[in-house]
DNA sequence: GTCGGGGATGGGAACGTTACCAACTCCGAC
DNA sequence: GTCGGAGTTGGTAACGTTCCCATCCCCGAC
């Protein structure tokens, strides 16, 4: 009923627990014959080492577990990132605890506290809009931290992001090049760093064309597909509705595309690519970022820190790609 | 540099470690004044309880951690399920370790072994095609197991699935009702239980119309979007190509829809709904299952087992819904 | 024959925490 | 004045493992 321990295995194999420890952990100094006897006892009892007890005692304790904290695991962008992180971790024999924050600072704190209480070796973090001073003490205690997708204000850690501002600028410039002058901006919370960056890129492009920002065309704080659909409806009710849309993440893009009718003549560029974005009845161009590369890069950075890299925090910026799709294009 | 322990807190607060333990864990029998002194010492030192050591010692040890093992976390279906599981776990103050198997029995074993070595309270498992006898010993040791999406052959555990066969039958019946008689089947590995069920449903519908299975129209073992696209190309090269397609999961559906040209006259019904499936340039009907309900149900079942429910294993079957979309329809 | 060395094995302590029990204080009741 | 009980506190052992050191054995070298 209870799980067998090394003592039980030792008794069954007629050796000391110490020898079992060595045999089970593959350390040298066990004769082949003894090792075989231990292995048989292990098999017979169905013994499995208790890694929690192990990590408690080991000289340099490491749980071989990292925590991944994202905004929303159900979002395909973060799902791809998570899978990529998991693959990288699996390659190192490491496990991944996941947590979604919904971008709520309180939930972020709870999740991170639960992770550090379990002695994770490191945290891969998509920071919420809240402060992150509470990370300082775990970091002094040895927990490594790497930020992905967004930096954490006032926290000196490695950060992996993409060129949000330049990507947004290119997207809006493309729309301007198509002759549009009334380009709406549909964004998530302005408190989120990526959103501020993308909004800045939007302004960059407008400004380069000598266009001022039209507050009526700018909508922030869209947290869901239905928020985005509602914002779209409001924009179309304007006296002079926009002729093009810039949507700043996949959720908003999906909300907008879902609400557009087939006959609608409006050009859309969205941040984030997604499956079949090239097969929609209304054409959709996208600023594509690579969540797999994002996750893999961040994970590698984290593991190099866990392995003892003490150099100054790095900031890695990956590039986005504008994919133009339209009636005349072959898609991509 | 090193993380403080209860001893350090005890020294700082001028009490015994035992009292710190009580105070930190909110147990009764600590005077308000002492509790306050302990709390201040905790804050000052940045102390956090080591839950691994705690669980080692506790009377009925529970790590408040469950393991979630899915085929592929990047698949939107499993991503939604994972998020739903995580929410359920969060509500209980429980953490979630995730692992993807790629449907490889070896990786499944590795992941599960790593999970049980860390003493997870339970496993939420999308079983691979491999055997699962290796789960018996952890289960005797107290690890609860619930299967989701598919049953595990020869394992007496709770299982949450959907009515795959009936859903597939309804999908193919719909195509037959549209006048199609050459309906291709594009499926994943036949070894996967859901795929066998969906294939059986396909045959049910054909049989009810007095149609035999045409081996030329049936393709198994499609593991990726490109596999699906290639299978589609091969089918269209047939002397008498199919006029309708039944695709048996989201990956295959996406592969097929991505490869279809805009002018193609072919009806498609796919298993699994996904965002904007109603906005594709080629209409797509789907058999929709609810991954959120699947995950939540399975998680609740698992937690009730962890809480001590020893009744006979249950088998829960959730219902699918056929969503018909076409040029004449409003979509859904 | 003694000695030395290397390989195998075991004993005891410790990791950070909690279970269990004992002890102490304080107070009212007999 | 003694007793008893409730409330608070501390000491000791133990959870399952590994680190450190000692021991034992065998064998070859002097």
From TrEMBL, chains A, B:
<dbReference type="InterPro" id="IPR028082">
    <property type="entry name" value="Peripla_BP_I"/>
</dbReference>
<keyword id="KW-0238">DNA-binding</keyword>
<dbReference type="InterPro" id="IPR010982">
    <property type="entry name" value="Lambda_DNA-bd_dom_sf"/>
</dbReference>
<dbReference type="InterPro" id="IPR000843">
    <property type="entry name" value="HTH_LacI"/>
</dbReference>
<keyword id="KW-0805">Transcription regulation</keyword>
<keyword id="KW-0804">Transcription</keyword>
<protein>
    <submittedName>
        <fullName>LacI family DNA-binding transcriptional regulator</fullName>
    </submittedName>
</protein>
<dbReference type="GO" id="GO:0003677">
    <property type="term" value="F:DNA binding"/>
</dbReference>
<dbReference type="Pfam" id="PF00356">
    <property type="entry name" value="LacI"/>
</dbReference>
<feature type="domain" description="HTH lacI-type">
    <location>
        <begin position="4"/>
        <end position="58"/>
    </location>
</feature>
<dbReference type="InterPro" id="IPR046335">
    <property type="entry name" value="LacI/GalR-like_sensor"/>
</dbReference>
<dbReference type="Pfam" id="PF13377">
    <property type="entry name" value="Peripla_BP_3"/>
</dbReference>
